[in-house]
Amino acid sequence: MGNKKKRIWRWVALAVVVLFIVLQFFKIDTSVPKFDTDKDFIAMTAPSDAVVTLLKNACYDCHSYATEYPWYAEVTPISWWLQHHVEEGREHLNFSLWGTYSTEKSMHKLEECTEEVEGGEMPLKSYTFAHGDAKLSAKEKATLVAFFDRLRKE
């Protein structure tokens, strides 16, 4: 490789490093909006301790305002990707706003929860990769599905 090509690659590498450093100044918004905690899914449905643990480990990070951001959420552009997943998750289902859903909507959401857990679609593989405690065993899936189904029949 000639000297000119080496210099170009050095400038490209330097530009990438500088860009990465500058991006670190653009942080995601991790603030939590005000909401009525009495309308949270767990508060309203009073599940067993086992179900609470499963919901918090496998669902609440992306589907509630109880998101616990890991250390790598401080690294841009990874933080943008994480925030997109959280926003999308809350858009589809937000357990923190459960009490604001109509009966029809909550029944539909419970049906979707059953389908997603049974089908292995939730929690996402990309989430369980980094959060091993979110990986659901067959027994844990059955526990969650039974809870969701019981709520639909009440």
Task: Walk me through the structure.
The chain is mostly helical. The chain has one domain (27-153). 60% of the residues lie in helices and 0% in strands. The protein is built from 8 helices and no strands. Helix 6 (103-118) packs antiparallel against helix 8 (138-153). The model has no long low-confidence stretch (mean pLDDT 91).
Question: Topology, pairings included?
Answer:
Blueprint: H1 3-23, H2 41-45, H3 49-58, H4 60-63, H5 78-92, H6 103-118, H7 125-130, H8 138-153
Helix pairs in contact: 6-8
* Average predicted local confidence, pLDDT: 91
State the share of residues found in helices, binned by percent: 55-70%
**Overall 3D geometry?**
elongated
Please report the distance between the alpha carbons of the first and last residues. Answer: 73 Å
Oligomer: single chain
Please state roughly what percent of the residues sit in beta strands, choosing from under 5%, 5-15%, 15-25%, 25-35%, 35-45% or over 45%.
under 5%
Tally of contiguous helical segments: 8
**What value does the Rg take, in angstroms?**
21 Å
Going by helix content, strand content and strand pairing, the class is mainly alpha
What is the domain tally?
A: 1
User: What is the number of strand segments?
Assistant: 0
* Biggest sheet layout: none
Element-level helix/strand string = HHHHHHHH
Q: What are the low-pLDDT stretches, counting only 5+ consecutive residues below 50? A: none
